[in-house]
Design brief:
The chain is mostly beta strands. The chain has 1 helix and 8 strands.
Length: 157
């Protein structure tokens, strides 16, 4: 159980491997493939990568990943989105399709930047129909860790 008090504990809570530095929290650890090679304003974009670590519930912790993408922002098209990814085991190939029609419209022409981040938080809520706060909830802060960065270019077709 981790119990960390105050902001002085932030550095200790990064949960990095022994010998790692705080900078390692921002160093990509997996490669992302983006397709197709030609992306238009209505094209579905496939993001694929190998899961570098297991995510999900683990004792008093819950680890999860998010996929963030941001690019040109105009009123008529998608600018930025953040999507939670499903729990997965280390080594699994993850495939996530970004469908413009499901994200609110179409891509703007230009370059989109993306990243996949990993984060751990206390798992203090009992799952089930009644949400009950666990009395001895561990308290800690963990900075999100960048697992991968990627980009894609949208052109008018």
């Amino acid at each position: 159980m981790r119990v960390l008090i105050g902001l002085a504990a932030v550095g200790a809570a990064l949960a990095l491997p022994v010998g790692a530095t705080a900078q390692d929290a921002f160093t990509p650890v997996t490669h992302v493939q983006v397709g197709p090679s030609a992306i238009g304003t209505h094209t579905d974009v496939l993001i694929r990568f190998r899961q570098p670590m297991t995510t999900g519930e683990n004792g008093d912790e819950r680890s999860f990943e998010t996929l963030e993408v941001s690019g040109p922002s105009r009123p008529e098209c998608i600018g930025s989105r953040r999507i939670g990814l499903a729990a997965a085991h280390e080594g699994t190939t993850i495939r996530h399709t970004l469908r413009p029609r499901w994200l609110g419209g179409r891509w703007c022409t230009g370059t989109y930047e993306g990243r996949i981040t990993y984060q751990v938080e206390p798992s203090c809520i009992n799952p089930g129909p009644v949400q009950v706060k666990v009395i001895a909830c561990p308290m800690f802060i963990m900075a999100p860790r960048t697992l991968a960065t990627f980009h894609f270019r949208v052109t008018a077709h």
